[in-house]
Amino acid sequence: MDTDFGFDDLWALLILKTRDVAPAGVSLVAGNAPFSQVTANALGANLAYGLSLPLFVGADRPLVREAETATAILGPKGMRSLGQELPEVPSDADLPPALPALINWLESAREGETRDILALGPLTNIARLIEVAPEAAAKITRLVWMGGSNGPGNHTPHAEYNAFADPEAVSIVAQSGLPFDVIDLTLCRKVQFTAADCPSCDQLTADLLGGYLQIAQERGRESMSIYDPVAAFAHLDPASFVFLPAHMHVTTERGSHYGATHFDPTSTSRTRLATAAPADLSGQCLGALSQDRNHGH
Length: 297
Ligand code: RIB
Ligand code: CA
Description:
Distance between the termini: 21 Å
CATH topology: Inosine-uridine Nucleoside N-ribohydrolase, Chain A
Oligomer: single chain
Order of helices and strands: EHEHEHHEHHEHHEHEHEHEEEH
Bound molecules: alpha-D-ribofuranose, calcium ion
Number of strands: 11
CATH architecture: Alpha-Beta Complex
Shape: globular
CATH superfamily: Ribonucleoside hydrolase-like
Helix content: 25-40%
Number of domains: 1
CATH class: Alpha Beta
């Protein structure tokens, strides 16, 4: 997994946990919050939820552009809360670097073994991998990414956050020819929940989920979209989604459309845009947070 460790990234990890899927590694990337805070969130989540995630230090800034966090919306931690927060873990320990670990993991693939990546933040780490070690990157069997929009944006009128935070990285990945499944904002906006849908959770999870829902409530909306958990299910249950092969283009010219993505259906493309998700997906996402599922906390 590759993540900028906001709350919905953590939520995606908790979904994997309910399926007993343990990531071989988790590469961190600057995004929702500055890199030091992304690392703090990952360490705190490991402790609070007993995740034992092997964490790796990825890119602390985008490839070309200046850093763009989402802290104006998500708060200084890139993760809001109504009360309890992730524990602060004093860490002097140096986490290992992500790129060599990714390269080793890919190169160690034996015949027939999968090497799937679930990417939930800006694509900086994956683009660097493609640039530095294209032969290793070619061993990726499936890259599922929450990002881009086949419609309006959320961070700007035209751009989704993960795409806007590193458009040059999106461009490199889109042109790489890797098997690339895009779970875009338009699809995620169809997967929503309200306060009435929230399951009975432990206090920390309830406060973090409430903080996430508050993003919509503060804007006068009753329901909040679910992003990264939708990509987690696309990773786990691809057959329950509809995918359209398409060429993806991202605007890398600075201006009002910087970071905007555009999809042209192309039957031969190895990029696929997810266009439909299971009808009960919101309930499936929320179910993974319910008290009886979160044994680690
Ligand atoms: O646009 C949604 C994406 O940006 C998600 O990955 C979420 O974590 C947010 O910050
Ligand atoms: Ca994310």
